[in-house]
Amino acid sequence: MWDIAIIFLAILTAIFAVESKDLIKSIIAFSAMSVFVAILYYIMGAHYASVFQLLVYAGAVTVLFAVTIHTIRRRRTA
Fold first, then answer.
1. C-alpha distances out from residue 60 to 2, 12, 14, 51, Å
2. pTM, 2 dp
3. List of domains in the chain
4. Cβ atoms within 10 Å, residue 35
5. How far apart are CA 26 and CA 14, in angstroms?
6. How far apart are CA 77 and CA 73, in angstroms?
7. 23-21-59 Cα angle (round to 5)
8. Residue 13 in contact with residue 36, Cβ under 8 Å?
9. Quick one: CA torsion of 18, 56, 54, 4, rounded to 10 degrees?
10. Alpha helices in 20-61 (DSSP H)
């Protein structure tokens, strides 16, 4: 039962990340989706894949997106 709810939340946040007009909200939704996918990996028994999902996607890629958005906004205002 929990896995179906988490799958639904992962799909919902993924759609919101794609459809949102605000880039910061898209980054937050992408990060939440990555956390939900990591939880699904953990439930399925792939513990190492879950840890790598959290470290790489929910951590590094999200920070990379945020820094890119920050840099682009800084260049537009300057």
1. 27, 22, 18, 13
2. 0.85
3. 2-77 (1.20.120.1200)
4. 19
5. 9
6. 6
7. 30
8. yes
9. 40
10. 23-44, 47-52
| Stated length of the chain | 78
C-alpha span between 12 and 21 (Å, rounded): 16
Rounded CA separation 20/3 (Å): 25
Cα within 13 Å of Cα(5), Cβ side: 2
How far apart, in whole angstroms, are the C-alpha atoms of residue 9 and residue 15?
10
Tens digits of pLDDT across the chain (78 residues): 888 999 999 999 999 999 999 888 999 999 999 999 999 999 999 999 999 999 998 888 888 888 888 888 776 666
